[in-house]
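G., the chain you wanted modeled:
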Amino acid sequence: MAPPSAPAQKDSRPPTRRAARPLQPYLLSTPALAVIALLFLVPSVYNVVLAFQSLSPYQSPRDGEWVGAENFSELWSNGDFGGAAVNTVVWLTAMTVVLRLLIGLALALALQSPVLRRWKLRGVSRTIILIPWMVPQVVAIAAWRWILDGSSGVLNQALTGLGLVENGIPFLAQTSTVWWSIVAIIVWRELPFVVMVLMAGLQSIPSEQYEAASVDGAGRWTSFRSVTLPGLRPVITIVVLVTVIQTFNNFVYVWLTTGGGPGRYTAVLATELYNAAFFDNELGAAAAIGLVMTAIMAVFAVAYMRLTSDREETR
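Predicted structure as tokens:
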């Protein structure tokens, strides 16, 4: 009878290969993380530190004087800051985003209509829609300033030629029309992005859903409300979030159009930041404004994403 075999001994050697494997993803991502930290994290941390200092653009960063929360307290006591915040939220952001979304949805639906497909005009129509987006922002603003000029502008010449007005309207120099003019410029220039994204969203909706709705006797409005809008909800979420962040932080449109005028009527947070940094020579105050803008955008992004995620969970 053969002797019983000895129990197999466990390998007591350290699992070097298994232990080293979890480190591999971190080692591979280290260069990318280093670049992100260098380009984004370090400037962000320095901006937070700078917001609590008093520093001129002509001074070395080591010469910054620590002033605590003085920069923020001056913002709250400054009446111009509140007006700039209202202009940024209401006129620059809310008004332009809502108009772009409504007009963009209407144009996207029109470009998807069977009439354009029947007459083979979809390609031409989409190219025409993209033209404003191809024009650089500086060129677009310069062209619109020429169109809206109070004395020699094309629009005023057309209005006076038709006898609708006796004298030219200074669209960019009077408070009753200046913000509507800026809104028109922003919507005209940035609308193609919204149209293209919504068109892609419309094309991703299965045609079977529309066929099922028509079989159930749903009309165009019912199909739009029960099929199109729910199908576009994720796309609309992305469009709103991207356009809000992009517009809220925009500096070019207001600065190159009116410079914040007439007076400070069209001042926004971005122009206030620029004035504080390069006209008042207070980099700390400018950094404080930047932190306030970042906080507002962070609150909006978290609240908006929480709202949309809750809606998706309840479906």
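Residues 233 and 308 are 9 Å apart (CA to CA).

Shout if anything looks off.
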